[in-house]
Every structure is written in C-alpha cells, then in structure tokens.
Amino acid sequence: MTRFGYTLMTEQSGPRQLVSYAVAAERTGFDFEVMSDHFSPWLTEQGHAPHAWTTLGAVAQATERVDLMTYVTCPTLRYHPAVVAQKAATLQLLAEGRFILGLGSGENLNEHVVGAGWPAIAERQDMLAEAIEVIRALHTGELVDHRGEFFQVDSARIWDLPDEGVDIGVAVAGERGIERFAPLADHLVAVEPKAEIVEQWNAVEDAPSIGSGARAIGQIPICWDPDEDAAIARAHEQFRWFAGGWSVNADLPTPAGFSGATQFVRPEDVADSIPCGPDLDRIVEAVSDYWGAGFTDVALVQVGDEGQDRFLAEAAGPLLEKLRAAAP
C-alpha cells in the first residue's frame, strides 16, 4: 500500500509552527512526516530556516504514530558525519524507532556557510559515500578510529544507541549515483517520479529491493487553496525556485542568486508544474505519477505558511481519502 506523508518545510515556517503542523498532520491521518534541513531559504519571500534537528526533537515528543525523516541532511560539510551519527541515534531514541536518516550530497545554498567551499559533484558523492561509512561504523556502538580521504574520527563512540538502529535513505537522481549509493542505503529518496530510477536501483547488485523491505520515498509540491488565483500567486512567490531543477538548484549559493535565476519564471509556468487551487482530483492525478513509477511513499509539500492550518483542517483529510482510494 502506498504511504502518504506531510512535509515540514523549514524554509517557509518557524519552529513552533512546524511542531503544530506536525501534530495536526498526524491527527489528520498522514503516515509519515519529512523535514527539510536548510541553513537558508531558497527565496527571501519564504523567510525562515530554523534548525531542523532541534525542531525534529520537539516533533518526536509531540507526535506518537507517524514516521519521521530528514529530507535530506548533508553529512559532509556543514555537519561532520560523526555528529550526524550521534544526532540520528538520539532522535531515533526520542522517536522510539520512527526515524529514518535521509542523506544527500547537499546544496551550495546551505553548505557554503561554513567556509569549506563547494566541491564538484563527483567529489561530493565521494564525500557522501565515506560519510555513510563513518555513520554506519559509529552506529555499531564500537569505538571508531577512521582515517579517510575526507574525514578523520578519533576514538569516537556513540553511547546512546537505539536497539533497532537507524535506517538510512539516500537521495539519488542519475544512474551513476544509483549504482554508487544503492548498496550503501536502506531506502531510496528521489524528487522526480521516474520509473527508471526505481528500476535501476532494483537492478544494482547488493541493493535492497524496493517493494521488498526497501522504500522509494518521493516528494511533490502542491498549493491547495479555495481560490485558484491565490494559490497560483502564492506558489509563484514561494516556489518559483522549483523551476530550476536539481542540477541548477544545487549550485546556487544565496537567496539572491535564486531570485535572479527565477526572475523570468511566470505564475503560469509554476502552475504548469505544481497543482494549484481547490481541485483535489488534480492533485491526486499529479501524485499518481509517483506510484505509477513504483514509489512506495510520497510526501506532499503544501506551499506557503499562509493557509497551512486551513489546508490541514479542511483539505488534507478528504485528499488522503482520495489518494488512498486511487493508489495501489
């Protein structure tokens, strides 16, 4: 059965609001919740960037049932992988086994802030692979010494470890990344509903099989509002950065850069790629691309902080009913 999630967007809401939305989303019936991990919003109009891990700790205590996930954390520049290993173990204990550590190779927007530069994609992938090795080693509970190409760990041990461990999901896009990371991960993370991503993953030797224990977790933005014009205007203001695609978005360093890169994106361009307005059937049709591609989980992003309470109170319940009725 396809599982449907709710996205806690740190770029568009403050920490207390995010905890409130998390509780409401669980009450409404979402199966899981994912949280972005940013140092900066993509656009100044979004206006927020609270610390994801602090907020997730609060969410873990405020909720009881939903699975939780970072979507996604970069464990290579802004965070050392040993620190990520400790944070993930602690959060898993707080969440009582409901947490998945979602990892990726990062975005310049968030990682450049520590002054370590911004490596090319091949090097970022090498760093991510080594970081996963460090995290896995520390999650054994053993004393770890590591001398790698990118990271050093001296006599480190995680003292508070969950009995069930911490599953790792890795964000991938192209065939090279899939071949590299599928054997290192427990779950697939991707933001495009492409069947070839799941097929290529399942074809990799030693990769956990999607649909047989491993999950393929996607994400899709929507902008529900009773007024379609208001929804389109909000989606354009808040989410026009989405038009650039990952290959562009990963390398832009500041909100000013995103603003300049998207200055010619029109409201109708955003409406063509994001379902906007009150039509729940249109949203179901857009989400169906994911389960049609073999994804097991889809997290919805309701665009904008404005109207989030109304979406959760009025639209989310009926939308989940329609999604579950239509999904395999």
UniProtKB/TrEMBL annotation:
CDD domains referenced in this protein's UniProt entry, alphabetically: Tetrahydromethanopterin_reductase
Keyword set, alphabetical order: Oxidoreductase
InterPro entries associated with the record: F420-G6PD/mer (IPR050564), F420_G6P_DH-rel (IPR019945), Luciferase-like_dom (IPR011251), Luciferase-like_sf (IPR036661)
Residues of the Luciferase-like domain: 3-296
Pfam families recorded: Bac_luciferase
PANTHER family the record matches: 5,10-METHYLENETETRAHYDROMETHANOPTERIN REDUCTASE, PTHR43244
Protein name per its UniProtKB record: LLM class F420-dependent oxidoreductase
Organism encoding this protein: Nocardioides hwasunensis
